[in-house]
Here is the input.
Amino acid sequence: MQKIGITLFAFALILSSCNQKKEVKKDMNNPFFKEYTTPFQVPPFNEIKLEHYMPATEEGIAVQLAEIKAITDNKDEATFDNTILAFDLSGDLLNNAGNVFFNLNSANTNDAMQALAREITPKLSTHRDNIMLNKDLFKRVKAVYEKRKDLKLDAEQLRVVEKYYQDFERSGANLPDEKQAELRKLNDELSMAELKFGENALAETNKNFKLVIDNEADLKGLPAEVIAAAAELAKADNLAGKWVFTLQKPSMLPFLQYAENRSLREKLYKGYLNRGNNSNANDNKEVLGKLVKLRDQKAKLFGFNNWAAYVVDVNMAKTPEKINEFLMKLWTPALERAKKERADMQAMINQEGGKFKIESWDWWFYAEKVRKAKYDLDEAQLKPYFKLENVIDGMIYTASKLYNIKFIKHTDLPLYCDEAITYEVQEANGKHIGIFYMDFHPRPGKSNGAWCTSFRNQSYKNGKMVTPVVSIVCNFTRPSGNTPALLSFDEVTTLFHESGHALHGLFTDGPYRRTAGNVPNDFVELPSQVMENWALEPEVLRVYAKHYQTGEVIPQQLITKLEKSAQFNQGFETVEYLAASLLDMDWHTQVLNTDVESFEKASLDKIGLIPEIAPRYRSTYFSHIFSGGYSAGYYVYIWAAVLDADAFDAFKQSGNIFNPEIAAKFRTLLTKSGSDEGMTIYKNFRGQEPSIEPLLRRRGLK
Here is the structure.
C-alpha cells in the first residue's frame, strides 16, 4: 500500500520540506533544533527521544506561523516569489519532527508514543486550519491566482499556483465565517477519530487475540517452518512448549492454508474478521459511525452531495458514479469466476467425503488443495526459493537493470529499530539519488500491512537539490531457528510493490514541494503495481529464486507451474478486493441511518457477495479508509491496475521486459509526476489512453 506517508497524508500541506527562516533558540540537545550531522543527513534516530517531539512540534508551529506572517505583512504586491514560493518554503522544522514522529507511530509505536500522538494531532489540525483559513494569506494567494496568466509563469509555476489555490478552496478559505468555525470543529473531531480508529485496529490485531495450541495433534498439516515459528512466538509470550498463532498475516495465513483442524481454522479466521467488533474497549463501531457522519457534514459544507464526491473531485475518476460503474464492470466477471472456484473446492470436499458446505475459513485450505491438484504446485514448494535476502537482490536487479542505477548497502546509518536495513541509491556514475530504508517483520508496535513513506521528500534548498530518504515497512514471515525468512509469493510481490513506491519517491525531481511527486490518489499505485510484474518474469526469477539450503536456482518446471497458476484464485482475490472497494464507496456516498453491521450487510448483499468470501477488509478494521488517507479511495488499486497492466504490456509487446527506451520514458513519468494531470503524464509515457484489456487478460476475467 502506499500508505504513502499514510499518517502524514492529512497534514501534507503544512508538513512540506523547506528553508527555515527563523533561528530556533531552544534546548540544543533536541536533535530537531540543529542541522543533522549524520551521513546523508538522515534523521539521528539514536539521539531522538520521546520528549523531543512536543517541543519541536510547538516550535515548528510557531516558526511556520512567523513565516506566514512575513508573507501577509509584506506591503509589496503579491507575486509568485513573495507569496506562492514563500509559502511553499515554509515549515521545515515542523516537517522534520512530523516525518519522524508519525512514521514511527505507525512502524514502532508504544503506549507513550500513542498518548503523545493524541496531544500532537489536535495541535496540528488547528495549525493547518490557522494557515488554510488565514484570510490575509488567502487574499495574496488569490491575487496571484487571478493574474496568473499575465505573470509569464512557466508551466511548473502555473501548476503550483493553481494547486495551492485549489487547496485553499478545498480547505474552506472561501466559506463564510460561521461555516469556517464549523469546519474547524469538524477537522478537529475528524483528526482525533481517525487516530482512535487506528489505535483500536492496532490493538485488535497485535494485542487482543491469539490462538494458543497445546495439543501437537492440532498442528497436523502445517509445514515444519510454520510450526517452528509458532513455537518461537509462544516462547516469546512465556508459553514455552506450546504454539501461538496471531492475526498477523505471516502467522495466520499459513494456518488457514494448511491446518487440517477445521474448527481451529474457524476460530482463527473469525478472530481476524471480528477485529474492532468485539464490544470491548477497542471496538470501532462507534468511532466509525462518527467518522462517516463527520465526513458527510464536511462534504456538505463545501456543497458536495457526499464525502466521496468531495474526495474524488480532484482524482482522475472525478465522480463516485464513474467509480462505481468501473468497479461493477469488473465485479460481474470476477464474481462469476469466484463461483466456479467455489464449485471446484466444494467438489473436492465432496470427493474427500466431507459432509459440509464450504465456509469462508475453508477457502485458503481448499484453494491450496485445488492448486496442487490442478497445477501440481503448492506454496510449500515455492517458499524455500524465496529467501528474503535473495528477493531483495531480485528487486535490486530489476530496478538497476531498468533504470541504470545501483544500490550500496550501509551499516553506518542510524536506525529507528534494530531490524531495519539501509541502502544508498546511486546513478550508474556514482551520483547520489537518495537513501532507502527497509523494515520487514511484524512486532507489537507495528501497524498491520505494508506501506511506503518518507523521512524526507525530494526538494530544493537555495537552488540545490535535497535528496529523499524513503522507507518501506512490511510484515513478512520472520526467520525461525535455523530457517531464514522464507516468503510466500504474495510477500514477494509485496516487496516489489512497495519498492516501486520507493523508486517513485527516489526519482521525483520537481522544483516545488506542493507538486513534486504529488499525484492524484488513483495514480499513486501505478509506480508500485507495475513493479510487481517483473517478479514473475523467468529472467528475474532466476536471479533471486534460489533454494535457501542448496543455492539451486528455481527449476524451469516450477517456473512453468507458477506461470500457469498465475490466474489461479483470481476470482476470489478480485472479488474480496472489489467488495471492499464498493463498501468503501457506500460508506462515503450514503447516510448511516442504521447500525454499522446492518449497513455493511446491506452493502454486500446488494452486490451479491457470496457468503464464502468476506470483503478484504470489514468495516471495523478497514484502516485504509478510516485512518489511512484512502477514504473513498480504496478503488485506486484496481484503477491503477488498468494503468500498470497497460504499461507493462508496452514492455512485453516490445519483446524486451527491460527495454531501455520504454524504461527511460517510465522513469521520466516517475520523475516528473505531479507536473501535470495524471492522465496527461501517463499518455506522455504510453502515447495513448490506457486499455483495460491487458488487466482482464492478466486476471483471466476475459
In short: The domain at 384-564 is CATH 1.10.1370.40 (Neurolysin; domain 3).
